[in-house]
UniProtKB/TrEMBL annotation:
InterPro entries: DUF247_pln. It comes from Ilex paraguariensis (yerba mate). It comes from the Eukaryota. It holds the Pfam family DUF247. This is Uncharacterized protein.
Amino acid sequence: MLVLENQLPMLVLDKLLDISGKKEDEESINNLILDFCCSETRDKYSPKWGQCLHVLDIFRKCRLGKDPGSGSGTGTGSGSGSDRKYCCTKPRKDNAKLITRSATELFEAGVRFENKESDSLNGISFKKGVLKLPSFVIDDTTESTFLNMIAFERCHVGAGNEVTSFIWFMDNLIDTAADVRLLQSKKIVHNFIGSDKGAANLFNTISKELTIDQKSGLGSVHSQVKEYCEQKWHRWRANLCHTYFTNPWTLISVIAAGVLFGLTISQTAFSALQYYQSPSPTPSPIPGQHH
């Protein structure tokens, strides 16, 4: 149903629904498709998109959480015509500047990950050291679904590039099985293919030769993350927290050692102060000495 080359124009589906006598309004066909493809998201809102292109177009808009009037060029990837052209070209040499560190590397640099509590692929944000990401499922249909949405964005002028940008960004974050485990612990990734390494390979495969414009929404997020990680203080603080404050017993030991060190310093200072403030002893007279 979501394979790009198998899509029927929405005009055909809408006409068939009209012939069946079940068409209530202009949104009838859209609502039927949403009920079938996006039942969970369908319960949260009832968009009025008007005439869409086909089933894949509706499914993509549903995954992006697009509101009526938002247009094709809003959201995570900025989706403008220039962005689309950039994504369809071969990677340029200056694209290396856009490489984001993996999730584990960012975590070691002090970046915290939080679930955006939304299944919309739009709206990745970074603020005050917190990178907020949407939650999503990785299963047997993930690769095919994302590849078809990417193909649609590349082939249809004006569709935008939000899904392409999302996959590019997640591929940078997910490099190894350790990255998948970290994002799973934050309830961002829900892996149902059984292998963390397999999930990492999936993103590494479908994102080949995908690029993003530095002026897009995710380009801005990348710049903010890069600037944050370049500050050594954040890495030092993260290293301190990860080393000493992840286990309560380790924390207690650090506090106890600090208290003991403080008491030792205090005792040494008190002893020195007492020594210098004590009165000097009066010298004993020398025998046989007379005034």
